[in-house]
Design goal:
EC number: 2.7.7.27
Family: Belongs to the bacterial/plant glucose-1-phosphate adenylyltransferase family.
InterPro entries: ADP-Glc_PPase, ADP_Glu_pyroP_CS, GlgC_bac, GlmU/GlgC-like_hexapep, NTP_transferase_dom, Nucleotide-diphossugar_trans, Trimer_LpxA-like_sf
Distance between the termini: 79 Å
Catalytic activity: alpha-D-glucose 1-phosphate + ATP + H(+) = ADP-alpha-D-glucose + diphosphate
Structural class: alpha/beta
Shape: globular
Radius of gyration: 23 Å
Subunit structure: Homotetramer.
Amino acid sequence: MEQKRIQPLARDAMAYVLAGGRGSRLNELTDRRAKPAVYFGGKARIIDFALSNALNSGIRRIGVATQYKAHSLIRHLQRGWNFFRPERNESFDILPASQRVSETQWYEGTADAVYQNIDIIEDYGVEYMVILAGDHVYKMDYELMLQQHVDSGAQVTIGCLEVPRVEATGFGVMQVDEKDEIIAFVEKPADPPGIPGNPGMALASMGIYVFHTKFLMDILRRDAADPNSTRDFGKDIIPYIVENGKAVAHRFTASCVRSDFEREAYWRDVGTVDAYWQANIDLTDVTPELDIYDVTWPIWTYAEITPPAKFVHDDEDRRGSAISSLVSGNCIISGSSLHRSLLFTGVRANSYSRLEGAVVLPDVTIGRHAQLTNVVIDRGVVIPEGLIVGEDPELDGRRFRRSDNGICLITQPMIDRLEL
């Protein structure tokens, strides 16, 4: 008779978040911070989604590997994720690239970022490892993926999205059989393989992997001894297991967490300014595709102590108002109008200014009479009085970082170079 599980598998798992990437396609947004530390949704950082998924799934041991410009990320983790208690068999380790294996070697790839901390991982004695990317926005119950991993007898289980084949060329793509066993894994193929029974779609890797810990440690040691390896999960580890062992695909739709208001399985790589702007602005919809108000699956983050948002003045052309917008704490909307905009903590929008399609990061000041349309404004920027953005594409492109879709990224150095 098969023995029933006494406790969730997540209690014997460690989540290991790879959070070292720059995210260069976000341009100046990642000049001072790593992509996982970029602000999202009014209060959170991008990494909070992977960490919240782990916590909500029941995982109580978490490690975060950092590398590129990690200070703001580490500070956020120390402030917002410091509630784990060793006496409850919980742990939260921040693991900067610290040349622990070699005095000259930083993390050389995603696999190396785990390999260099093998001794820390093995000390915890966990049965399973859940390897996560720290730079995607989604809600997922990793316990369900762990259960599939154990039930299938796989050596690695890979989280994957179903995407149209024509859109899969930028992903690692899996070719699977009828049982979702992976028979080939290719990085960014020109002609992605289709899904059996659904040839117009392909299975794209989410950068989420589940291993038995001992197997992962063995395979990482083998990879570290290979002088030809690039020390990367997608390029080296996964193709080796597909060829020599058993790899199984786990479809995101099987473990995506959805509230009653979410119709589709939501996953976003907010790795470009356009995608970042769109995902934030989407939250202003009456019924957004991502429900951040779902209290059954909260997005944990550093909760600042702030006074409430404040709206003042009620004259015809000087009314503090916000339509289809999200406004965070410590914002003062002083005779300014917001339309379909998202304001992070501590924004000051002064009289006669107008914001439409604006994603405004913390501590920004909007000067009087400014008219800003379809913008992302970096933290701490002071927008001068009367600045107009979003009406003259040629002028915007000379002064700011303007995307192909017409979104303008505005930073303080760009403002300082203006001739007003």
